[in-house]
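Technical annex B. To support the medicinal chemistry partners, we prepared a structural model of the target in complex with oxa(dethia)-CoA, based solely on the information shown next.
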Amino acid sequence: MKTNPVAMIAGTGHSVPEKTLTNADLEKIVETSDEWITARTGIKQRYIAPEGVLNSDLSAEAAKQALEDAGVLPEDVDAIVLGTVTGDVNFPATACYVQEKIGAVNAAAYDISAACSGFIYGLNIANGYIASGQFKNILVIGAETLSRIVNWEDRATCVLFGDGAGAALVQPSKNGKGILSTYQKSDGRLAHLLMNPGHYTGKEYFDSNKEKIEPYIHMVGREVFKRAVRCMGEAVEDVMSSAGVSADDIDLFIPHQANLRIIELLFGKKKISMDKVYVNVDRYGNTSAASIPIAMDEARRNGRIKDGTLCVMTVFGGGFTWAATLVKF
Ligand code: UT7
């Protein structure tokens, strides 16, 4: 191993709403079928937050679990960094509501907007805080209530997304555990391919057919698909070569859970067995910034991640933004 970690993941948690929406349920809402959704995406169900359940509620629950897992008290949290594009309100930051809900009275709290990449970007920020010596306990959260910005009349997007939150408590590294290498990139030239103009814009946005883009998730699926495979592929290679390891050394890959076909293509091209790849997109759909931390927490709790597991996580999303990180648990 070429690198020494400075920060480690000391605790994790995740939370989803109680209610699921199955493909059969969706058949009653738009012209689609379980067969199409399963074949094109691998998704079977997603969780949907009912009215009154907020991003900060899901985030606070995930955060409490991560603190308990790490044995850290809320008042000892130095910072809360929350990746989301579907916060409770435009401002203040959803992280501030989470701070209040968990009683992290001494923390600095703010949101970051990097779409699906929010959690891994946040981990990188936490890594920097630890490296500089400024903070010792950082809560990194990825959380979304995407069901509130989905156009429920658009079958091309509404079948894809779900709600949820995942969290990690980041601390100074111990016993060689932690973040061994990271990679982050963006390409704003492609922002128009995956975006939500929102309600308060001073400009109208149009798609390639010159149709106005409404304030919902707008995605040019095929373009996003191709770039996702390529960019996550580069990110994975980069974090492995920076740390001086090969795919054979990696115990588990956790890719962004957007589409099973993307995941299979990504690892098929690299000749990496799917046995080493964590998949839960069938149960959660695409939860954007929550996707990686939900999968990571599940993997820790079901034994796929153990002490010493070498794990690569990689993500791709709106911006475009993409990232990867190599972590020794
Ligand atoms: O988290 C951020 C990153 N996001 C992603 O990674 C998503 C990337 N993109 C994708 O996963 C895929 O492009 C989709 C799942 C969104 C779409 O799959 P696709 O294989 O690219 O399908 P398509 O958009 O090319 O559509 C194929 C056909 C079209 O019909 P025609 O034009 O061939 O007659 C669509 O109208 O499938 C139709 N279609 C549907 N049919 C039934 C689109 N959505 C549906 C649907 N049910 N829900």
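Notes passed to the chemistry partners:
The longest helix spans residues 221-243.
The domain at 7-176 is CATH 3.40.47.10 (Peroxisomal Thiolase; Chain A, domain 1).
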